[in-house]
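Single-chain item
Fold in token form
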Amino acid sequence: VQLQASGGGLVQAGGSLRLSCEASGRTSVIAVMGWFRQAPGKEREFVAGILWKEGTIWYPDSVKGRFTISRDNAKDTVYLQMNNLKPEDTGVYYCATQVGRSADWRVPGYYDFWGQGTQVTVSS
């Protein structure tokens, strides 16, 4: 499975961005799609996840109510709508997928394939 992320950019605090991640290849084996972010000097952090077939969603408290993950199975694409952005949301955002099974969504090591990352910068 290959993942191509897009949609990052520079936005002022309080603004919005929508990220997209298109999957290709053996997409029939996708079980979970997740979004992570990584700020300079910090560990990669889980921000949203979705069970690909069932649609179950989970967010950490840090983004709950501001970020929305959605999917378009026909396009093999997952989206991350980010509203009311804060400077602490700045980082490189990655999409990732678990294939064949669902493991702890919060753990980067349980994901099998990763997109290339897209930079999100929120100015104060």
